[in-house]
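no rush on this but wanted to send it before i forget. theres a chain ive been looking at and ive put its sequence and its fold in token form underneath. please have a look and point out which stretches look like helix strand or loop to you. thanks a lot i owe you, the record is right below:
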Amino acid sequence: MALNIADLFEHAVDAVPENPALKVGDRTVTYAELEADANRLAHYLAGQGVSAGDHVAIYAKNSVEHVVAVLAVVKIRAVTINVNYRYVEGELNYLFDNADVVAVIHERTYAPLVAATFPKHEKLRLAVVVPDALEPDDDSDVSSYGGVLWADALAGQSAERDFPERSNDDIHIIYTGGTTGFPKGVMWRHEDFWRVLGGGIDFYTGEPLDEFAQSRQATDPRMVTFPLSPLMHGGAQAGLLMHLFAGHLTVLEPKFDPVRTWEVIEREKVQLIFMTGDAMARPLIEAYEAKAATGTPYDGSSLFAISSSAAIFSPPVKQRWITAFPNAVFTDSVGATETGFQGMGMQDPNNISPDGPIVGLGPNSVVLDDDNRVLDPVADVGKIGRLGRGGNVPVGYYKDPEKSARTFLEIDGKRYSVPGDNARIETDGRVTLLGRGSNCVNTGGEKVYPEEVEMAIKGHPAVYDVLVVGLPDERYGQAVTAVVELREGASLELEELRTYLRVHLSGYKLPRAMTVVDRVPRNATGKAQYPAAKELALAGTTEATSV
């Protein structure tokens, strides 16, 4: 036995084989059924020469097959590579090359892109084709690259669990979303991944759990959980695995749709949802309020826990949720692909910060100054530094020792992951998250954190979404620039926005330019795409007439 993702899942299977594990649409599979198909696919992959340490790309929307693929790969000690299903050909080529992919498990709707990229990668030798998660079924040709249909791959394969012993040191890779540059493969040891992201540590006390702690709880009454993000996002993947280890039922949808989400919550009596900030929270609460206005509201009474992470959950939107669900527990979680869980904040009407999420520092989390000294959470209240995490941290970035050396630091004999998120130390062991340092706007000698400005702008009634970037400026070095998506039928001038913001922000933080766009650029998980926003801002801005 090992502290390995596959072993931890198998413990839950042994504890509650007949319990439902996944539900997608009208399809429900038990833990035993999920295990059997994962074993079949694992045996097929192994028979085709996929071995321990090989990299297998999973290129699909949320589905039962997606989960089976993840489990099958780790069962044979190979490594999953998460693929953003919105990639164009060039991005797909980059990932297949950078990750040294030997096999790809892909949804059939992506066959044309796979056909175009497959021949360009010498190491890529196998493709398994998954049925489409959304109707209608795709019939794209897969013969040009030797694609094997899912049913054919599983046919005749053993459903037995007869795999070699695994290791705590097996590697699990999660590619970042590429928010500020090319995606990077973050390499986690399985044990470290479990400790930080899979429930292997008590998030509040920092106490490590033993190997069977989660599976022992699987016989207790279980939760119905609903991660709303795509599984190709590391946070959703971690949430899914954590709940599989503990025997919960996880509901998945292949596409985020606010109305459909509430219908699922009502039908399945969902108790816990994970969402990605305003990108999901805003359309969800608007759909909920619209239905309530008809006199026949959605029944969301089963919801007792609502968690947001990876993007801004702004005060105005958060307040609407708290008003609609006054008895629910709201949490803001902070972290990164490189750090995992770093802290959590409980939200209530009296604890909503206009600056950014206020969270209690999690176990092993620290704030570092510019000289990489660990700041004192008591003596250094009010100071701003970079948020880091010690303890169980990744091995590094795949094939990138230079970036690894900049992010994974050794300080006073301890190893820390410091991806660049800035935070201000508050009282009582808490911090306010201010945003990624690489996005910080340096204007007139002052540092402006985009997320703080974005939070304030989102309070304007005409604004639906916004990102803030810095554009070159002869006088100030960089000019704070807002890339704004307006509500339907709304209009907004820059000076009007600046006037509104003067009661919320210092003068130097006010946008000096604004670009109105049809849609603010975000990836499939709702995370901000700052390089794309900067391109939009450069393409056309309205400049301020006053300082």
Notes: The chain has a mean pLDDT of 91. DSSP finds 16 helices and 29 strands in the chain. Residues 62 and 254 are 4 Å apart (CA to CA). The radius of gyration is 23 Å.
